[in-house]
Amino acid sequence: MSLKNPSALEFLLSRRSRPAKTLVAPGPTREELAPLLTAAARSPDHGKLEPWRFIVLEQGAMARLAELTESRGAALGKSPEDIAKGRTQFDLGVLAVAVIEVQKPSPKIPPVEQTYSAGAVCLALLNSALAAGWGANWLSGWISHDRTFCEQALGLAENESIAGFIHIATEGAAPPERPRPDLDAITEWVTE
User: Is 94 helix (H, G, I), strand (E, B) or coil?
Assistant: First the structure.
């Protein structure tokens, strides 16, 4: 039986993402980010395919991505509000890790399990950053699903997509608690 870790459970019961717009400099150094990426890479990975990789976006890259978001939004006919929302994460970003889903051919592991693994990596990175005392937020939005953006901004291959941008920096103002799901409404117990 595994050893109990009440501190870890308490953290998970009280964890709260920090809105990306409230994150401020400084962000983690490369040395501070390394253990967070290591923890995220320990996520469930059926078949040991490693169907994900990381692209660390430092502040200098954020301006380029903001501009590309603007031009892609205009090319796609997005509303000014949608463009502004898509661009804000890069305009205000200090450091983000793009978690890239990498679909790999496998006779045993279906694509959906590879997608789940990439999502697990996003959550593990988010929680690792929060546990280390950073503010963190997982964002995606329309821009992460635009193939041209994926190719131009990050050089993604055909079998790659953005699972999420995990923004990590110093926490500004702490957000208020938000309503949580009613556990009884979303849980079914099967006894037979």
Answer: coil
How far is residue 94 CA from its own chain's centroid? 14
Domains of the chain: 17-172 (3.40.109.10)
CA–centroid distance for 75 within its chain: 25
Per-residue pLDDT tens over the stretch 117-172: 999 999 999 999 999 999 999 999 999 999 999 999 999 999 999 999 999 999 98
Q: Tell me which amino acid residue 139 is.
A: L
| pTM for the predicted model, two decimal places | 0.94
Report CA dihedral (23, 25, 28, 30) to the nearest 10 degrees: 130
pLDDT one-digit tens code per residue, 176-186:
788 899 999 99
Backbone phi and psi for residue 52, each to the nearest 5 degrees, phi listed first = -165, 160
Sequential DSSP letters for 25-68: S----HHHHHHHHHHHTTS--TTS---EEEEEEEHHHHHHHHHH
For strand 95-102 and strand 160-171, is the pairing parallel, antiparallel, or unpaired?
A: antiparallel
Interatomic CA distance for residues 143 and 136, integer angstroms: 19
Contact 59, 51 (CB under 8 A): no
Helix (H, G, I), strand (E, B) or coil at 18: coil
